[in-house]
Amino acid sequence: MAFEIKHLNKSFGDKQAVNNLTLNLEEGQILGMLGRNGAGKTTTIRMMLDLIPIDSGEILWKGKPFSKKNLKIGYLPEERGLYAKMNVLDQIIYFGTLEGMTKNNAKKEALIWLEKLDISHAAKKRTEQLSKGNQQKVQLITAILHDPEFIILDEPFSGLDPVNSDMLKNVVRELISKKKTIIFCSHQMEQVESFCDKICILKDGNLVVFDELTNVKKSYGYRYLEVETMSNLSDYFKKNHYNYTKENNRYKIRVSRDTEAHRLIQEIDEKFNISGVSLKDPSLHEIFIERTGSDKSA
C-alpha cells in the first residue's frame, strides 16, 4: 500500500480523540473520510500534516514517514486560510513559492487556474472583496498549484452555488484522472459516493467502517425495494410487519435478501396495481446514520 496509517493514537487530557486508527490506500485511490463533529477526522488530518504530534502509531507513504520531505502534499482546509488584505494573484504565487515553485512558474500556473475556475477578473482584487464561493476557489488553487501527489480536501464544496459546485467537481475529476491520491472529507454524501473508492467512518475516535465502497454496501445485509403505485399498500405492509417508508406514490421497503424482494413483488403484484419496481443498495447516507446514530456527517 502506498499510504498507511498504523495504530494511530491521540488524546487530549482524558479524551481519546483518535483510537488505534489503522487504514490504507493504494496510490491513486480516493478515500472518503466521514464522521460527526468530534469523531477524530480533523485530529487525524492535523497529525498527517504534522500540525500536532502523534501520541503513538505511524503514518507512512511508500514505507517512509508521511512528510513534505518525501512527497508533495496539497491541503484544502475547511476553514479559510487566506490573507484578507492581499490580492488574489500575489497570494496564490506566494503559496506556490512556499511549496518550492519559482515565482514565474507559480504565476504561470496561477493564471491558468484562475482562468479555468472563471475568476481571472478577480486576480488583482483583495481576497476580502471576493464572495465566499470565489474565496473557496482561490483556496483550492493554493492547494493544488504545485501539482501535489497527495491531496486532502476538507469540505471542498462548502459555500458554493450549483454552478461553482459543478466547476469544482470537474477539478476533482481532473485530479482523479491524473491518479492523485486523495482524502475527501465532506458531509455531501452524494459527492463522496460519486468520487471515492474507499470509505472510512469514524465515531468517537474509533474506526467503525473501512472498506471499498462497493463492499460496504454489499456487506450490509439488506437492500431497498422501491414500489411505485397509486394503490394504498400501507395496511398490507403493516399487517405483514415490513419496515417501509412512503413518499408520494412511492413505497420504500427494507428487505434482507433478493429472494425476499422477488417474493414480495410477486405477492403485491397479485393484489395491487403496480406501475414500477426497483431494487437498490442502501445509500451511504443511510449507512452513515445507522453506524453513527446521526444524520449529521460533519
Automatic annotation (TrEMBL):
GO molecular function: ATP binding; ATP hydrolysis activity
Highest rank taxon of the organism: Bacteria
Keywords for the protein's UniProt record, in alphabetical order: ATP-binding, Nucleotide-binding, Transport
Positions of the ABC transporter domain: 3-229
Family matches, as Pfam families: ABC_tran (PF00005), DrrA1-3_C (PF13732)
Transmembrane portions of the chain: none
Protein family (similarity comment): Belongs to the ABC transporter superfamily.
PANTHER family assigned: ABC TRANSPORTER ATP-BINDING PROTEIN (PTHR42711), ABC TRANSPORTER ATP-BINDING PROTEIN NATA (PTHR42711:SF5)
Name of the protein in question: ABC transporter ATP-binding protein
